[in-house]
């Protein structure tokens, strides 16, 4: 019998006594907050738990284990987790009344940052597990089932990726024709606003062979597009093959050249990058690799040199613009995306205007912008001259109005042109399928235009708020 098809409801329970379920019947519900790396981590946790007999469920009510994979990058994210834990506490109590157990775990960056404080604030939580220790999840759960409450947040010495099982082929197929692949974790840049160096630790790159093997498995299962992930992905480096049977140090550019050789992988992307780590080989990859999509997320955070210095970004606005000139010369159709923080401590109206001016000069295809939120333990939180919330609100509105206009203009500029689209999934409306443009926009096409996984040529007919509508070219 397929172990994953046993329904947990088939197992008899004695009211009042939590049932001990056979491993094969357990169900896990994972809720993911934050960035793409958390999406990837949730999948890898699901893979680790599948080896332990858990199958994934989308219905929290039927879960024997609820895991929140959290994000700590901005304030509201952590608060959302605490309020979600309040709701889960009630569900756990209801389930206990029905004689069923519901274990509750908190993973991700809030787990790393808050540790035991989570169990103190939310006693319904049974385990707290940081991002570097997911491979220990099955062992941790065994101990939790034995009645312990566990906080596991050390930076493991062993390589978690070596211990995490790869997804089964059927699971990869279910997840679709695009996939994430983490190649690098952590960050040594210490931007003064950012918690990542504290929650994810210092920069660690996965070895070339591990990454290539994972990409090959994905491609064999039908994945057409892989996005390489890292908090500072273009700082990735590793020993790879060199001429004469020797090895040499590779950077991300060289890795992309290698991954582009994998049959079936038609599209490559990477995110998120730091301007200081864009080296010549990576720019050459944009020039020479048709598979490397012409879209680059390259956060600048601010257009004011004074604020960039206070943020410890270690580049000026002019450095950033000069870098973009080189990238655009290599790949003229590249579309740019960025991240911005408004209201960093000490930001004046003139500093903010410098950000607006930089945005006007760059002309972004898409961008994310945030109000500065002081993160405990970061240098920014200790700075004086915090900007009032009302000023942050007002600046954010002005910046977002400009960025939205640029995004819409970019979409409009494509109307009438013929572009490649990777068909990803059925559309929300009957008769439609959704594809993805080279610049990451959803493209709505007629369902007969192609099969999922096909890359087809379409003509853009009009734009939606965030998407493009197209007909077969
Ligand atoms: N406040 C606001 N935005 C932040 N980001 C990171 N830390 C903070 C903070 N403390 C933003 C940055 C980063 C993105 C992932 O989140 O713009 O690039
Ligand atoms: Fe955070 Fe990115 Fe700066 Fe690293 S480079 S500290 S992840 S903002």
Explained architecture:
The protein is an alpha/beta fold and 473 residues long. It has three domains: 3-152, Methylthiotransferase, N-terminal domain (Rossmann fold), CATH 3.40.50.12160; 160-411, pyruvate-formate lyase- activating enzyme, CATH 3.80.30.20; 418-472, Beta Barrel (OB fold (Dihydrolipoamide Acetyltransferase, E2P)), CATH 2.40.50.140. 36% of the residues lie in helices and 22% in strands. It is built from 16 helices and 21 strands. It has helices at residues 36-51, 75-97, 108-114, 117-121, 137-145, 160-163, 169-175, 196-199, 208-220, 252-259, 280-288, 305-310, 317-330, 349-362, 379-382, 389-414; strands spanning 27-32, 55-56, 65-70, 103-107, 127-129, 150-152, 178-182, 184-185, 204-205, 225-229, 237-241, 247-251, 267-271, 295-297, 335-342, 366-371, 418-426, 432-436, 442-446, 455-463, 468-472. The chain has a six-stranded parallel sheet with strand order 2-1-3-4-5-6, sandwiched between helices. A hairpin with a 5-residue loop joins strand 11 (237-241) and strand 12 (247-251). Helix 10 (252-259) packs parallel to helix 11. The longest helix is centred in the last third of the chain and has 26 residues, at 389-414. The chain is globular.
């Amino acid at each position: 019998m397929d172990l994953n098809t046993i329904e947990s409801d088939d197992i008899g329970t004695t009211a009042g006594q939590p049932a001990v379920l056979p491993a094969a019947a357990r169900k896990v519900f994972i809720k993911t907050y934050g960035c793409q790396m958390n999406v990837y981590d949730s999948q890898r946790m699901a893979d680790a738990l599948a080896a332990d007999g858990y199958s994934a469920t989308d219905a929290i009510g039927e879960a024997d284990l609820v895991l929140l994979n959290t994000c700590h990058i901005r304030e509201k994210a952590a608060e959302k987790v605490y309020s979600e834990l309040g709701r889960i506490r009630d569900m756990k109590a209801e389930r206990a009344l029905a004689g069923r157990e519901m274990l509750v775990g908190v993973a991700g960056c809030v787990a790393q940052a808050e540790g035991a404080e989570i169990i103190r604030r939310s006693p319904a939580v049974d385990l707290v597990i940081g991002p570097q220790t997911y491979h220990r999840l099955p062992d941790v759960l065994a101990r939790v089932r034995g009645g312990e409450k566990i906080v596991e947040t050390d930076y493991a010495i062993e390589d978690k990726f070596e211990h995490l099982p790869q997804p089964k082929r059927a699971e990869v197929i279910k997840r679709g024709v695009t996939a994430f692949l983490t190649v690098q974790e952590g960050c040594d840049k210490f931007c003064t606003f950012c918690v990542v160096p504290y929650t994810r630790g210092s920069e660690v790159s996965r070895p070339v062979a591990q990454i290539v093997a994972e990409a090959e498995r994905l491609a064999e299962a039908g994945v057409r597009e892989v996005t390489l992930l890292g908090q500072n992905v273009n700082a990735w480096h590793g020993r790879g093959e060199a001429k004469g049977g020797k090895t040499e140090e590779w950077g991300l550019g060289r890795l992309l050249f290698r991954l582009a050789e994998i049959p079936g992988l038609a599209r490559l992307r990477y995110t998120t990058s730091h301007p200081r780590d864009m080296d010549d080989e990576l720019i050459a990859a944009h020039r020479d690799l048709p598979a490397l999509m012409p879209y680059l997320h390259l956060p600048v955070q601010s257009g004011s040199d004074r604020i960039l210095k206070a943020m410890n970004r270690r580049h000026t606005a002019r450095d950033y613009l000069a870098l973009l000139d080189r990238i655009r010369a290599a790949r003229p159709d590249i579309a740019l995306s960025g991240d911005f923080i408004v209201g960093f401590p000490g930001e004046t109206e003139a500093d903010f205007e410098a950000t607006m001016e930089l945005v006007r000069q760059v002309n972004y295809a898409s961008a994310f912008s945030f109000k500065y939120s002081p993160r405990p333990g970061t240098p920014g939180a200790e700075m004086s001259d915090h900007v009032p919330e009302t000023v942050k609100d007002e600046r954010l509105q002005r910046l977002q109005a400009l960025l939205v206009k640029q995004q819409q203009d970019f979409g409009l500029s494509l109307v009438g042109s013929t572009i490649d689209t990777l068909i990803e999934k059925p559309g929300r409306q009957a008769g439609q399928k959704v594809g993805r443009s080279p610049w990451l926009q959803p493209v709505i096409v007629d369902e007969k235009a192609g099969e999922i996984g096909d890359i087809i040529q379409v003509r853009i007919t009009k734009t939606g708020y965030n998407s493009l509508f197209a007909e077969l070219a």
